[in-house]
Specification:
Layout lengths: L10 H10 L9 H14 L3 E7 L3 E8 L5 E3 L5 H4 L6 E3 L12 H4 L6 E8 L5 E9 L7 H67 L8 H31 L8 E3 L1 H12 L8 E3 L9 E3 L1 H18 L5 E7 L5 E8 L21 H6 L5 H11 L3 E7 L3 E7 L37 E5 L3 H13 L3 E5 L2 H11 L3 E4 L8 H10 L8 E5 L3 H5 L5 E4 L4 H13 L5 E5 L3 H13 L3 E5 L2 H11 L3 E4 L5 H10 L8 E4 L15 E3 L4 H12 L5
Parallel strand pairs: 8-10, 14-15, 14-16, 16-17, 17-18, 19-20, 19-21, 21-22, 22-23
Antiparallel strand pairs: 1-2, 1-6, 2-3, 4-5, 5-6, 7-9, 10-11, 11-13, 12-13
Helix pairs in contact: 2-5, 5-6, 5-11, 6-10, 7-8, 8-10, 12-13, 16-19
Length: about 675
């Protein structure tokens, strides 16, 4: 048999298409192996192959009765078979001049009869064959040849499925790569946009206070518009960045038990200074509620989006945040209710679409932007359903379904008659006598951000020192020991993370309060313990509250909580905070020893864990006369007696009353 063989007229195209299946030189697959076994048995032929013919060889994807993996194309029977549209038949190779001298006939595998059905693609190319071979002359019937063609079509379909799967994976990979590229671009651009926007919002906030009284009313109105549009642009940039993370599958939520009422109250305080034509109210439940499970940062973001959206579409009446409570004081649903223009039934599904369009009436009030679409996606990540109930001209209720059995929302107008006053206006000066003589170290590489915080701190009556690098911050902190450090995380050189680590490792600086003022990702900031978190642009009122919290901490007692169970540690921390103490939670013996050294706690609350015995022994053997008292909790009755380590008090189940009593008894009346 000559190596000069006839080729299909479109052989180059055929080979290129074969390559798109990415099947050559791949491991065996059961789908193809089963088909060659069926062909061999049903046609009673000792050899059956799925043979794929590329430019220079035939390669066997599946085989029965043959050891070889491939042969040169020039001597193969299949290179002739792919020229045919039906089964290529060679009943006796010794009598066929095309094959009588072939090494595949004169030598192993000693082919005498060959039948090959071409593997046709939808595009008309024959990629190879499903062939059967015998070592003796054979004549297959028409029915047998038809069966071989049927099996060949199954092989071709399997190849098409493989190609479709490959294309889907490639498309998914390309989409993922595009989203990752888009996400990286948006992250970079968002930082570049948020930095000047933060400066615009911050400086307009300073000017709006008109400290020197030299701005006319129309000037203040212009500043109000600048600030409002800056806020809108900042929210839009943040929404675009978050949406890119959600769609790229990079948005992570950290759900945990949280108290809903304090969260809502803090949100209303944050929104208090925002321009609104109607009052915003929250009727707090009369009894304590069970915690809900959600990501506190993302749930806060969703509620703020809903309230701000309600402000945009509400001209008269009011806005109410409402908690629907079930049996056992369990929050079932959180509603944001407004008396705005309402949403027609045919529009209610569209508002949650990414590119949903408002009706003509709603377009007059403003667009939805990405807020609702993003809010629903964030809720889905937290396992919360978001629903809407609305009546045109009466208002809208957006409901967060906190449990699976939460009742479906029905719009009921907000209850605002008890509070019809406009949102309070921040006074021009928030100086506090308790801040007098306090020093705040401002650390930020951005000059505008430093200037804004310097203005805030000076207005509050404090001394301020501002530096633009982490290295300078540590040098100044060693020299002056400030009462508070405000810290940006993203700085060149020694960044905020490095500054925090250096502060915590220095016993002389470890107790200085730190307020992180940064545009870093929420997930990154949530990993920071024992720091105050403030998002840029820093709201003046929230900054003042943080300043008060940190500068008043020296009047509160530190309570060390040694606990490895996250649910118990959160519960006990809440009781300590409510009782007026500063909770410090640790989970290992080494952390506890460092906390005893660095923070000098006035009381140790010790739960049942592996650290109980060694820590009690450490306290008993330390020989320190001012060692803090220890209170055990969570032990079974009588279990604590086996410790025999001088424990002062035992609580079976700590609560607010118990902690307050301990603080009063152990620490004196100033701690209650």
């Amino acid at each position: 048999m000559s190596s000069d063989y006839e080729q299909p007229p479109d052989d180059d195209e055929r080979v290129r298409e074969l390559m798109t299946y990415d099947v050559l030189d791949t491991p065996p697959e059961e789908m193809y192996d089963e088909l060659v076994r069926v062909a061999s048995r049903m046609l009673d032929m000792p050899i059956a192959l799925v043979s794929l013919v590329d430019k220079d060889r035939q390669w066997f994807k599946a085989k029965v009765g043959l050891d070889a993996d491939q042969t040169p194309r020039g001597i193969s029977f299949c290179t002739h078979a792919i020229l045919e549209k039906t089964v290529f038949q060679v009943p006796n190779a010794l009598e066929d001049p095309r094959f009588a001298g072939s090494p595949l006939v004169t030598g192993a595998p000693f082919i005498r009869s060959y039948y090959g059905a071409p593997l046709q693609t939808p595009r008309g190319h024959a990629l190879g064959t499903l062939c059967v071979i015998d070592r003796k002359p054979r004549v297959l019937s028409a029915d047998a040849c038809e069966l071989l063609e049927v099996l060949a079509r199954q092989v071709a379909r399997a190849l098409e499925l493989r190609r479709a799967g490959l294309e889907a994976r490639q498309a998914a990979q390309a989409e993922l790569q595009a989203k990752q590229t888009q996400g990286a671009f948006l992250a970079s651009m968002s930082h570049e946009l948020r930095t000047p926007l933060s400066a615009i919002i911050g400086f307009s906030s300073i000017l709006r206070r008109n400290k020197h009284g030299n701005l006319a009313s129309h000037d203040l109105d212009y500043l109000e518009r600048i600030s409002a549009n800056g806020d809108y642009l900042l929210r839009l940039v943040n929404d675009i960045l978050d949406l890119s993370k959600v769609e790229a599958g990079r948005m992570e939520v950290e759900c945990q038990p949280l108290e809903l009422v304090p969260l809502v109250k803090s949100i209303l305080v944050e929104l208090e200074g925002r321009e609104s034509k109607v009052p915003l109210v929250f009727h707090s439940p009369s009894t304590p509620l069970q915690p809900v499970v959600a990501d506190p940062h993302r749930l806060r973001q969703v509620i703020i989006n809903l309230v701000v959206n309600a402000m945009k579409f509400t001209e008269e009446g009011g806005i109410e945040v409402r908690i629907i409570v079930g049996d056992g004081d369990t929050p079932l649903r959180l509603d944001v209710v407004d008396s705005g223009i309402g949403i027609p039934p045919e529009e209610q599904d569209k508002i949650f679409e990414r590119h949903g369009q408002a009706s003509a009436t709603q377009k007059q009030a403003g667009s939805w932007g990405l807020g609702l679409f993003l809010s629903r996606r964030l809720c889905e990540l937290m396992g919360i359903s978001m629903q809407v109930a609305s009546e045109v001209g009466m208002g809208t209720t957006f409901a967060l379904m906190l449990t699976k059995d939460a009742p479906k929302p029905v719009h009921q107008p907000p209850r605002v008659l008890c509070d019809t006053s406009s949102p309070s206006v921040e006074p021009a000066c928030l100086a506090d006598e308790s801040f007098a003589g306090k020093t705040v170290l401002v650390v930020d590489d951005d000059a505008d951000a430093r200037a804004i915080l310097e203005s805030y701190v000076q207005d509050f009556g404090c001394r301020v020192i501002a530096v633009d690098s982490g290295e300078q911050a540590l040098e100044i902190a060693q020299q002056i020991r400030p009462d508070l450090i405000t810290l940006d995380l993203m700085m060149p050189g020694l960044d905020g993370w490095g500054v925090l680590q250096a502060l915590r490792e220095d016993p002389k600086l470890a107790q200085i309060p730190v307020a992180v003022c940064s545009m870093a990702d929420i997930a990154e900031k949530s990993a920071l313990p024992d720091v105050i978190m403030l998002d840029k642009p820093v709201d003046r009122r929230r900054f003042r509250d943080a300043l008060g919290q940190s500068l008043q901490d020296d009047l509160r007692e530190t309570i060390l909580i040694v606990e490895t169970d996250p649910d118990r540690s959160q519960a006990v921390s809440r009781w300590v905070s409510s009782a007026g103490g500063i909770p410090r939670v640790v989970g290992t013996e080494l952390q506890a020893k460092h906390a005893l050294r660095d923070h000098k706690p006035s009381l140790v609350l010790l739960g049942p864990c592996a650290q109980t015995y060694p820590l009690l022994n450490h306290l008993r053997n330390s020989g320190t006369p001012d060692a803090p008292p220890v209170a055990l909790y969570g032990f079974l009755p009588g279990e604590e007696t086996s410790l025999d380590t001088g424990v002062q008090v035992v609580l079976q189940q700590p609560g607010l009353v118990d902690i307050k009593t301990l603080l009063a008894d152990r620490l004196g009346p100033t701690s209650t």
